[in-house]
Write a structure and sequence with these properties.
It is built from eleven helices and no strands. With 206 residues, the chain is mainly alpha-helical. Helix 8 packs across helix 10 and helix 10 packs antiparallel against helix 11. The chain starts with 16 loop residues before the first helix and ends in a 5-residue tail after the last helix.
Length: 206
């Protein structure tokens, strides 16, 4: 399966898993995905006891796309991404997957994509992706939980790739909230000198 061609299913909200199942077309190949979503939905956000999340990436994506329909808060996004250690084995494919989610119109799908970039590219010092990541971030973000994730991503990027991130901060298309929140998060870090913090604060927008 070509990761770049994966189409995300539009998010639908349901009160129960049974309601979700009732709305789905009955297809034998979908049973596995439904059971995976049920295991996650019923068991919270911990993936420790869900063997399906050790599958190859192309099979794993089926479960992720089902599970993401139930996400209605930022903690669920961040928890599942942090548990998907298998992503480390599929660097190029997962980057394309993250781009797919970022191009969604749904708030928590978009956050999911940026969270992948933070967890498996920024934090992993994948400098060869940094320009592409900046390009994906370089726009106005009208959704609050997306804004917060992008600000978090860029603040960690500043710590990992200081010079490149600083140059991005000097010229970008971020909305004012995301930009100022990024500066604030960077300045919250104990790894940044007082002089740097003062310099960064001058960049804040009114």
């Amino acid at each position: 399966m070509a990761i770049s061609k994966i189409k995300l299913v539009p998010v639908m909200k349901f009160d129960t898993y049974e309601e979700y199942v009732a709305k789905q077309p009955i297809k034998p190949e979908a049973n596995k995905a439904k059971e995976g979503a049920k295991a996650l939905f019923g068991g919270g956000v911990s993936l420790d006891n869900v063997p399906e999340f050790k599958l190859p990436l192309n099979e794993l994506i089926i479960y992720i796309n089902d599970y993401i329909k139930f996400i209605d808060n930022w903690a669920m996004v961040d928890s599942i991404v942090s548990n998907l250690k298998v992503f480390k084995k599929y660097e190029k494919e997962v980057f394309e997957l993250a781009k797919n989610y970022i191009n969604s119109k749904e708030e928590f799908e978009i956050r999911f994509g940026y969270c992948i970039l933070l967890s498996y590219y920024i934090c992993a010092y994948k400098e060869q992706y940094i320009d592409a990541i900046f390009s994906l971030c370089n726009k106005s973000h009208p959704m609050y939980y997306v804004q917060m994730m992008v600000a978090w991503l860029l603040s960690i990027s500043y710590i990992k790739f200081k010079e490149k991130t600083y140059q991005f901060l000097l010229s970008n298309k971020l909305d004012n909230f995301t930009f100022n929140k990024t500066i604030s998060k960077i300045c919250d870090s104990y790894r940044i000198s007082k002089e740097e913090k003062q310099q960064l604060k001058y960049l804040r927008r009114k």
